[in-house]
Amino acid sequence: MTPPYIANRRIIFDLPRVYPELRKALRAGLAPDSVQVLQTVYPNPLMDQGHRFENGVWRGPEFCTGPNDNRLFSAMHGMFPDAKVDPANRWRLQIDASEGREILDSLLDPLNAAVEDNARQGGRWAVVQLGTAFDDRGWCAGDLTERKDYGFPALGFVDGSSARKQTWIPFNPAQWDAYKPATRLFRTANDVVLTQIGSARPLFAPIPSLANASFFSTSGMFHPTAQAHTIIGMSIAVRMLNVLPAQ
Q1: Concatenated DSSP letters of 21-86
Q2: Domain containing 183: what range?
Q3: How many domains does the chain have?
């Protein structure tokens, strides 16, 4: 993964060179000067649902942080061969509020500022804002009923009257629904592993190596869900209704 400070430098120094070339290529092909080009901002995946009070005072939205939120990445922790590694040296993905703030300040806000700056310079370019649709709906958002799905399912034992039997805890992965509407609008490691691994009809070839297994456990993290893409698409459609000719 690219460190935020490297991403920030690329936004500041690379995008001002890349966007003019993109505009030139679009003018030469798909979007001549008479065609309106719409570009969306990037939604914020960093905030939880945030409705928290402390001593009767509204604290506002908060960054995803803490052990419970990070359980959404527990699938990753089983995808790497560290069983023989000393526990103190094992790699574990843990995202805290300070990292969320760093990503917001170094990456997300500058990136959206670059999108809007490009639109100002790009002739018939326009930025599609997403309003409040993604407010407090980051990768860790969810009410108490949703949070039961935060843990990655594993086989456990249940004591019975006659014999102990295995069962899935906290839920059976066969019940996983990748398209179920949820408060959070961004995929986590748990989501992508449940969606991409173990299907009877895999989208890709069977996993022949650990390297591919690692890819399946990370590719798609923090990306918008299908529900989120629908929200983005509807925002674009509404903007199109406002800018296209009546006919």
Answers
A1: HHHHHHHHTT--TTS-EEEEPPPP-SB-----EETTEE----B--SHHHHGGGTTGGGSS--TTS-
A2: 4-243
A3: 1
200 pLDDT tier (thresholds 50, 70, 90): very low
For 138, residues 6+ apart whose C-beta sits below 8 A from its C-beta are 44, 45, 46, 47, 48, 64, 184, 185, 186
Cα–Cα distance measured from residue 170 to residue 148, given in angstroms and rounded to the nearest whole number: 7
| Residues 69-90 pLDDT 10s | 888 888 877 666 666 777 777 6
- Of how many residues is the chain composed? 247
- Of 124, 131, 128, 137, residue with least CA distance to 50: 137
pLDDT at 218 (0 to 100): 72
Closest to 47 measured CA to CA, from 106, 95, 115: 95
Distance (Å, whole) CA 100 – CA 88: 24
- Considering only CA atoms, which of 15, 245, 178 is closest in space to residue 111? 15
CA distance 186 to 226: 9
Coil, strand, or helix at residue 94? coil
Exposure string for 149-163, b = 16+ CB within 10 A, e = fewer:
bbbbbeeeeeeeeee
Residue 159 structure tokens: 């004591």
d(CA 135, CA 244): 28
Whole-model pTM above 0.90?
Answer: no
Residue 80 structure tokens: 């790497």
CB neighbour list of residue 232: distance below 8 Å, 6 or more residues apart: 40, 43, 130, 224
